[in-house]
Amino acid sequence: MAGRAARLERRGAAWRVLDDAGDELAEAETVVLAAGWGAAALGMAGLQAVRGQAGWADLDAGPAVGAAWGGYAAPTGEGVLFGATHDRDDTDEALRDADDLRNLEALKAVLPDLAVRVASVQVHRHAAIRAATRDRLPVAAGWRRGCSFSAGWAHADSRRRRCWRTMWRA
Ligand SMILES: Cc1cc2nc3c(=O)[nH]c(=O)nc-3n(C[C@H](O)[C@H](O)[C@H](O)COP(=O)(O)OP(=O)(O)OC[C@H]3O[C@@H](n4cnc5c(N)ncnc54)[C@H](O)[C@@H]3O)c2cc1C
């Protein structure tokens, strides 16, 4: 499907996916919403925005293993990926220098030598909005008849084992 979906409309046994101007992007009996946080704007209730910014740097020698402590540092093969911030109900995707500092401070607190090396090279960064569920479990569910939804962010430290559940029934 090319274009940005703005709303879904039922026509007979089918769903129509419409853009902002009301033009049809697609028509199908079954629609799967896999739009992450974008699903909230399409009417999916029960999601909370959690803004996140992460950074990564190319290093001559990155960490051999990953570490997570609330923050994390993960080897990329070419260096390290580290972060990330968690800001609830914040939907701004603009990159923030202050968030780079927060991530670097978190790294420094646990892996100070690595933080010094990261601070001496160019840090690349990415910010996006996580679609969090109330209980922090991933969800895949029938939402309305013929329309399903999937989202996939859960806390890394969740001790609960049940990974898939039905939240809404068609
Ligand atoms: C900084 C940060 C760090 C993270 N770290 C981890 C981690 O360590 N481990 C982990 O498991 N997860 C992590 N996540 C979460 C992970 O990125 C998401 O759970 C995952 O990307 C969700 O995948 P998805 O395919 O459901 O949605 P997304 O990856 O969000 O993809 C949704 C797609 O739908 C498109 N879209 C949205 N709205 C519309 C629309 N109206 N019409 C058409 N297209 C639309 C978007 O452009 C996008 O391409 C992190 C997220 C962030 C921001």
Report on the architecture of this protein.
By secondary structure, the protein is of the alpha+beta class. Helix content is 15%, strand content 38%. The protein has helices at 38-41, 97-110, 112-119, and strands at residues 7-11, 14-18, 24-28, 31-33, 47-58, 67-68, 72-75, 79-83, 87-88, 124-133, 139-144, 147-151. The strands form 3 sheets. Strands 5, 6, 7, 8, 9 and 10 form a 6-stranded antiparallel β-sheet that branches. A 3-stranded antiparallel β-sheet has the order 1-2-3, with no helix packed on it. The longest helix is centred in the middle third of the chain and has 14 residues, at 97-110. The two termini are 23 Å apart.
Short description:
The protein is built from three helices and twelve strands; from the N terminus they run ββββαβββββααβββ. With 170 residues, it is of the alpha+beta class.
Q: Report the biggest beta sheet as strand number plus sense, adding barrel if it closes.
A: 6 strands, antiparallel
Approximate strand percentage: 35-45%
CATH topology of the domain at 48-131: D-Amino Acid Oxidase, Chain A, domain 2
Identify the CATH homologous superfamily of the domain at 48-131. D-Amino Acid Oxidase, subunit A, domain 2
Number of strands: 12
CATH C-level class of the domain at 48-131: Alpha Beta
